[in-house]
Amino acid sequence: MSWKNQFQRRFAFVNSQFSILTSRSVVFLRGWLARWRRPRTLGQRGEAAAAKYLRRLGYRIVDRAARRKFGELDIIAVDLRGASGRTVVFVEVKTRTSHDAGHPAEAVDAEKQRRITRAALAYLKRHGLLDCPTRFDVVAVTWPADAKKPTIEHYKNAFEAQGGSMFG
After folding, report:
1. Other CB atoms within 10 Å distance of the CB of residue 57
2. Residue 50, Cβ neighbours under 10 Å: how many?
3. Using an 8 Å Cβ cutoff, are 137 and 86 in contact?
4. 3-class DSSP state of 98
5. pTM, entire model
6. Stretch 95-123: mean pLDDT, rounded?
7. According to the 3-state scheme, what is the secondary structure of 141-166?
8. Taking a C-beta distance cutoff of 8 angstroms, is the pair 168, 131 a contact?
9. What is the pLDDT of residues 135-162, one digit of tens each?
10. pLDDT class of 42 with cuts at 50, 70, 90
């Protein structure tokens, strides 16, 4: 069989596969491509850098940008090397281009801590993890506009659970 015939056979197979695509599939693919090509925001880049940093430290990332009724949790991870074994870690990531408006970690004020605590409690209840040791960390990412890589600072156990005796 000549190469021309082989090509035509293979092309016919591929062509028949693409004819299966429905208009719904085409709409999905167009949306996916649009999201894939869209440039990420500074916050999204900071969260991705923080997740990569935590993975290198041995954390297992369980969820990212978890939006719940009570708020958003940037990164949910499990610290396998914790003093009490496996620790569920709720990480708040703050990203800035400079320290002109203050250090990124300073943006996690008492109200933000209460919202994170409330969202964390809802997450723990939903997944049956109320008996697990829990910790709240803050990762401050400083990423100047002209830099290829950010500066990352990790504050373990940055704050205690806020808002009463939710965690016993």
Report:
1. 11
2. 28
3. no
4. coil
5. 0.74
6. 91
7. EECCCCCCCCEEEEECCCCCCCCCCC
8. no
9. 999 999 998 989 899 999 999 999 998 8
10. confident
